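S.,

Sequence below, as promised.
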Amino acid sequence: MRTIFAFACVSACAAFSPAAVRRQAIEMKMDVPSLKKFFSAAVCGMFTLGAFNAPSQALTKEETNSLSYLQVKGTGLANRCPEVIGEGSIPLSSGKKYKITDLCLEPKTFKVEEEVATKKGETKKEFVDTKLMTRQTYSLDGVSGTLEVKDGGAVFTEEDGIDYAATTVQLPGGERVPFLFTIKDLVAKSSSAGPLQPGYGLGGSFTVPSYRTGLFLDPKGRGTTTGYDFAHALAGLQTGSFGKGDEELFKENNKKFDVLSGDIEFAVNRVNAEEGEFGGVFVSTQPSDTDMGAKVPKTILLKGTFYGHIE
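The prediction came back faster than expected:
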């Protein structure tokens, strides 16, 4: 039944568009069967419109702002960064400060550094492809900061916005690696003072907070600020009955809020001087989650696109 309805809907969509349906329904006096026919065509037209607004289609900032909440809901567009259309350059004057707003970062590829066996039986570290397990909530958006031009260069300092996103990827072997995608407290520098044009680059370090907060409790009820100090079910092991005391469970029992660091490089490839927009690509490396100090973090390699607006 669903297949028949879908086929009929596609057939009707080929003959009617939502605008034509609405116009003809108003101008003509229709009987009930005709109204039902045109109503079906209108519904199909809305489905077609939704297909054109799918995440695979790039949208500009103006087009994104024109969409209502219901048009965006469930489509994945909220996770997409706008596309910059246009060419040109934006001059940057020495000694002045500029405000960068609506900075958006959308990762496209996620890789994790792993030890891989070679044909000779040796092992080497390389970045392997992963499967993204997080739904459409892994982009950063609304990030703002100050761009100051001085001493023959420029310095961007991140200040506010949605600058972190909890993300999880899965390795080929099935292991899942959670990490906090972020550019918190980013200080990115450029050796060029301007203008802002294709080829302009920025790079610097940022802070990677702990994936878990201080109030998080593990399955044994252990935490940093609340919960138990040790796993009560393993009291004998922790008091030294086996000669090792708390050595084996020390990291699991002593939770800590790890604050690590990462690096990122931006490369501008599109500038819309009239709207003050710029966009390009980025490459970021950062550590994964440490399970509150219990695990050694893995290195995550992220590549994607970004969008920004300069005032």
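Helices lie at 2-15, 18-27, 32-52, 61-65, 69-72, 235-238, 250-253.

Coffee later?
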